[in-house]
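Q: What does the assembled structure look like for these inputs?
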Amino acid sequence: MNSYIKEGDNPDITEERKKASFNVDALTTFYHGGDKQLQNRREVEKYIEDHKELQDTRPTPFMSRDELIDNSLRKIAGMAKFNEMIDMNNIDRTTYFLQLVHVRDSMAFSLHYLMFLPVLNSQASPDQLSEWLPKSLSGTIIGTYAQTEMGHGTNLSKLETTATYDPKTSKWWPGSLGKFCNHAIIVANLWTNGVCEGPHPFFVQIRNLETHESLPNIKLGDIGPKLSLNGSDNGYLVFDHFRIPRNNMLMRYSKVLPDGTYVKPPNAKLAYGGMVFVRSMMVKDIANHLANAVTIATRYSCVRRQGEMKIGAGEVKILDYQTQQYRIFPFMSKVFAFRFAGQQLQEIYKEISKELKMGKLSQLADIHALSSGLKALVTFEVQQGIEQCRLACGGHGFSHASGIPELAAFSCGSCTYEGDNIVLLLQVAKFLMSNCTNSVSSGVCAYLQEKNSSKSSDLTTHQQYSDKQIIQDFEHVARKSVLRAFDKLRLTSQTCQKHEAWNRCSVELCKAARWHVRLYIVRNFLATIAIAQDELKPVLRALAQLFIFDLQVSNKGDFLENGYMKIQQIEELKEGVWQAMSTIRNDAVSIVDAFAIHEFELKSVLGRRDGNVYPGLFEWAKHSQLNKNDVHPAFDKYLAPIITKIRSRM
Ligand SMILES: CCCCC/C=C\C/C=C\C/C=C\C=C\C(=O)SCCNC(=O)CCNC(=O)[C@H](O)C(C)(C)COP(=O)(O)OP(=O)(O)OC[C@H]1O[C@@H](n2cnc3c(N)ncnc32)[C@H](O)[C@@H]1OP(=O)(O)O
Ligand SMILES: Cc1cc2nc3c(=O)[nH]c(=O)nc-3n(C[C@H](O)[C@H](O)[C@H](O)COP(=O)(O)OP(=O)(O)OC[C@H]3O[C@@H](n4cnc5c(N)ncnc54)[C@H](O)[C@@H]3O)c2cc1C
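A:
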């Protein structure tokens, strides 16, 4: 019996669950990475269910900004009582606990956990750690990561905040900076002995630890309402010749000696490690936001009946329309593709960061390129997918009752923070160009050196399209795109300065970067499902085929070029898309059930597990302040006098 089926559920959604062709719990375990991860999730969910002080007092879309901040801090204060759930030896459970308490409200201390602690941990010297880490873990030190300025976020080399050894700018955006944190890791251009040594991180106290007032020569404040994340006090910080001790420069890698001498790090970019860490963590997290949106749109599409396919046969479930399936299912397949890529990226990051700690820097460029590329491509695709899921829910999708507007607003910020996506794709392109000049490329770039690649695809039918053939075809397209950009750059560089040539080729360079990242995701998706248990292979294969075939059909020009594929082969791939969607249709609700997203996270009337949407919408609307009185006071105040006057003249 499917554990998702319960008494009182909407009959349409129960009918869908009875169609499952696979074991939903088995897919949940595979999707979440094993029994241990699943046990972590269940513990956290039960814990929060049992502790009301960790739950929202009412749906957050009805809250003002002050209420959001109050709600966020109340839950954080509540969390402080439950520090048994904050276990640095069980990061997965701790991360899920933080995530499920705050969901998309972005708590006021997100940066403390997301960047301040990791950067301190990785950039502070052992002595500095022994002094600052215990206070930062206990909560007496609450920090943020303040790098971006009003005038500079992308271009770190031109940061105007200077840290002059013994010698005015505003930091703008950092989360928690405005009102709540009392410390910040400040990234500033270091000047010592009259030389600029570039961006470096500094540990800076910004508020009085007793009164919490801004320290002298520091101005702090909130930057105002944003598209989302309004539960966080993203703030500004203005320094006016603020002094800090030399020892407040984080000195694991580079140092300033008492006489001002600068000791160089093994690699200047080690100072950017905090950004690589968050980018590496973000991909799996942002894929989960797409999983939320796809869950909402899929479940709602099974209880929403609209229109008759056959006159007189009764209205159909909108998920029976092929166009509705095509709006949702490709993004359902991307949830798996991006999650598996994000999982792999976190594993690679963990391995490489161990090497970096031991001073082995050979993989630094690789992890920078991989984390930048996946962050840039996945955040953009997720933003597109959440919007399609909103559209799939029609008018109710536009209401906060659906949960989708909050998902959309939250996810779109990820295309900008931790690095603008275009800027990061250009970083990937730099990495690729340098690999084009290498005589031998290893790892993720080995395909660039393939000299005897096939001149045409040997795809026959989509059923027989093997993993090997798929990867060969994607390597062909990615290699062609990268080498085309490389040749364009080489030729353009013969007619103008290097930086101008780079700019004139930058659109092609971004296209090449995207194909490189897509190849990585396709390869990883196929490798991941190859190790799944046999009973899950059919549904996972259908999802992988949908992801891959739809990607090829949507970019058919790249595959048709130079006759590599024939139009008949593209038509064959289209058939593969329709076939995959038809296979997925009967399992759609069970696939999203397997994401095992708790109602606290989904925050959606349309996507609720039981499918009882319409009664739920009325319950939801009762929270509206406008419904406190049948006649709103504004009517009596403004309209009634005018109407009375008009009536008296009639
Ligand atoms: C985990 C779950 C997440 C949940 C999230 C929940 C809520 C989130 C809410 C809000 C968001 C939270 C926090 C947000 C924080 C921030 O946004 S922090 C600020 C982020 N800012 C950026 O990312 C800035 C982007 N710009 C840059 O990084 C630099 O401009 C760039 C590095 C791209 C350019 O560097 P620059 O030195 O100016 O020039 P080059 O292009 O020549 O680079 C020089 C060489 O250095 C290599 N390199 C560049 N960056 C890195 C790096 N990070 N690591 C390693 N190496 C790097 C580059 O490849 C060049 O190498 P070569 O010289 O070619 O060998
Ligand atoms: C929700 C949110 C939370 C944030 N939290 C923090 C935080 O906690 N700490 C922190 O330090 N920062 C934070 N930021 C700031 C964020 O890191 C920056 O906004 C981001 O790095 C982009 O930089 P920018 O704003 O300068 O954009 P810009 O670089 O000004 O981007 C504007 C446009 O210029 C283009 N562009 C810029 N440079 C180039 C180039 N070299 N080549 C081609 N095109 C280019 C971009 O592609 C983009 O289209 C946050 C931002 C947001 C939205």
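The two ends are 70 Å apart (CA to CA).
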